[in-house]
Design brief:
472 residues; alpha/beta; Udp-n-acetylmuramoylalanyl-d-glutamate--2,6- Diaminopimelate Ligase, Chain: A, domain 1; UDP-N-acetylmuramoyl-L-alanine:D-glutamate ligase; Protein-Tyrosine Phosphatase, Chain A; 9-stranded mixed sheet; globular
Length: 472
């Protein structure tokens, strides 16, 4: 991200990027589309809530960014991008459509940067891969990356527009939940390396089958430079792919970047082989899926021609992003926050990791339903029940789990609720052992948007304090 106070854009540059005649104006230090996050020196872009027919968004609505211009100015905005002139004494870029204007800034931001750019897609793990690749590259040059999950029609151009011109590396997530969304975003990013982490039945309800998802994910290749590299999981079919350079990562002998993990209680040791060369690194995160993400990250750096030895030194420092499996320790209890999102494969991985953990500790899973799975939803939810056999307690949330045969879990089934808000946290605390491990995983709208993990953390902390003081 840009250092505080650094000039990101000169006003005439913004005018030219938007197809306007250059005029004098303020230097811009940041670009923002949310008036609540505006800082002094920012350009505020007044977006409409509806992105139009090409893109879908759970946050689409009738709200209009023009209504929040006074708040943006009060927060310190130095300029505006608007679709209609505002009676404000502040410089304005007036364009026909502010989303199109944002894309113009994103495109110009990419074109003026002469470093190398990585684009990341996949059904699961994009944010972890983006954060890890960013962390590995930061020691090797000025690195700019998307933040949070800025991977859609707003987030990708915004992240590009925020990229300093002097960046050596750019790392961007590219997401989708409907057909036809990845290609235009990939073309905007115009990448040197494209990473496809995996293809899983996420958003299956919007596609005819998993093959449709595979084709959509691989459409990221449309944004590859002619001499660019595709980094892809070794088990993914590449029918129709014409990328000039392809690097496969995985566990099989066919992988160009092949890993052999050894799992320990507190870390994973990974031996990675490329051709005749082998290296070894430690990874603090556990689970097969995290090892695969580390191999993908290593393969990306290999494709970039980066310093691999320096990257290996950084591997042990890589942490999980919030909500993607990071561990919170409260007293003796371990809370595994994987609440940001879920699909059948990532849910299975998370349950497998919990089951294979310390068998001397109580292991509890709070599972939220997986959304956007279409007609296959019931069968995919039912298939997860077998993954819970080794656990000590299970709570399910949402309609997706209604068809479970709960009697098979016996006393280990701790209940089903319609909403996370219906979970009785006091009752849950009474059932927990002092050294319990608790997994919270489900689709974004089940736990994450309601701040459930933070509520649970506070309740556990409250219980820990009570226990430490001997109060009842």
């Amino acid at each position: 991200m840009k250092p505080v106070g650094e000039i990101l854009w000169h006003w005439p540059q913004l005018c030219i990027a938007c197809g306007l005649a250059p005029t004098p104006g303020p230097d811009i230090r940041g670009i923002c589309i949310d008036s609540r996050q505006v800082q002094a020196g920012d350009l505020f872009i007044a977006l409409a809530g509806d992105p139009g027919p090409q893109f879908k968004s759970a946050s689409s609505g009738a709200r209009d960014g023009h209504d929040f211009i006074p708040a943006a100015i009060e927060a310190g905005a130095s300029g505006l991008m608007v679709a209609r002139h505002q009676a404000q004494s502040i410089p304005q870029l007036q364009v026909a459509d502010t989303l199109a204007g944002l894309w113009c800034l994103g495109r110009s931001g990419r074109q003026r940067m002469n470093g190398q750019v990585v684009g990341i897609t996949g059904s699961s793990g994009k944010t972890t891969a983006r954060q890890w690749i960013e962390g590995l590259l930061e020691a090797q040059g000025q690195t700019h990356a998307s933040i949070g999950s800025f991977n859609n029609h707003w987030g990708v151009p915004l992240s590009l527009a925020r990229m300093p011109e002097t960046s050596d590396f750019g790392v961007f997530e590219i997401g989708m939940n409907h057909p036809g969304e990845i290609q235009p975003l990939a073309e905007l990013v115009n990448m040197d390396v494209a990473l496809v982490l995996n293809v899983l039945p996420a958003h299956l309800g919007y596609f005819d089958d998993i093959e449709g998802i595979r084709q959509e994910k691989l459409s990221i290749c449309a944004g590859l430079k002619p001499d660019g590299s595709l980094v892809v999981l070794d088990t993914l079919p590449l029918d129709g792919v014409t990328a000039k350079h392809i690097l496969r990562f995985g566990f099989s002998a066919a992988a160009d970047v092949r890993g052999v993990p050894t799992y320990y209680a507190d870390y994973t040791l990974v031996r990675v082989t490329v051709g005749e060369r082998s290296w070894q690194y430690r990874l603090s995160a556990g689970g097969e899926h995290r090892v695969l993400t580390s191999l993908a990250s290593f393969a990306v750096l290999l494709a970039l021609g980066a310093d691999l030895e320096a990257a290996l030194d950084c591997m042990p420092t890589l942490l999980m992003p919030t909500g993607r499996g990071n561990e919170l320790v409260i007293g003796g209890i371990s809370l595994l926050d994987d609440s940001y999102n879920a699909n059948p494969v990532s849910m299975g991985y998370a349950l497998q990791s919990l089951t294979n953990g310390d068998k001397n500790r109580q292991r509890v899973a709070i599972l939220g339903e997986m959304l956007e799975l279409g007609p296959a939803s019931q069968a995919l939810h039912e298939a997860l029940q077998a993954d819970c056999d080794g656990l000590d307690g299970v709570i399910t949330v949402g309609d997706g789990f209604q068809s479970w045969n709960r009697s098979q879990l016996g006393e280990r089934f701790w209940g089903h609720v319609d909403s996370a808000a219906d979970i009785d946290l006091n009752q849950l605390l009474e059932k927990l052992a002092p050294d319990a491990q608790i997994l919270v995983k489900g689709s974004n709208r089940v736990f994450w948007v309601h701040g459930f993990v933070e509520q649970l953390r506070r309740k556990l902390l409250e219980g820990s304090i009570v226990g430490d003081t001997g109060e009842t």
